[in-house]
Amino acid sequence: xxxxxxxxxxxxxxxxxxxxxxxxxxxxxxxxxxxxxxxxxxxxxxxxxxxxxxxxxxxxxxxxxxxxxxxxxxxxxxxxxxx
Length: 83
Hints:
Elements: H1 3-13, E1 17-24, E2 27-34, H2 42-52, H3 54-59, E3 64-70, H4 72-82
Parallel strand pairs: 2-3
Antiparallel strand pairs: 1-2
């Protein structure tokens, strides 16, 4: 799979989120930013993203996925710290 394919899958399955995808083959790093994560525990956030990709994980099309999730407010703070 390609990063743009993973991004398209996530965008079609989780509303109102932005996705930043890096990686190749079956190993990807996903950064997800959206209001959907507001009020969810870190585990629930991860489960939301994993469940959106469950078919691809089960088929082996995706193997190793690293996920970081942020609300828009958290992302603003995180992105400011990166610079």
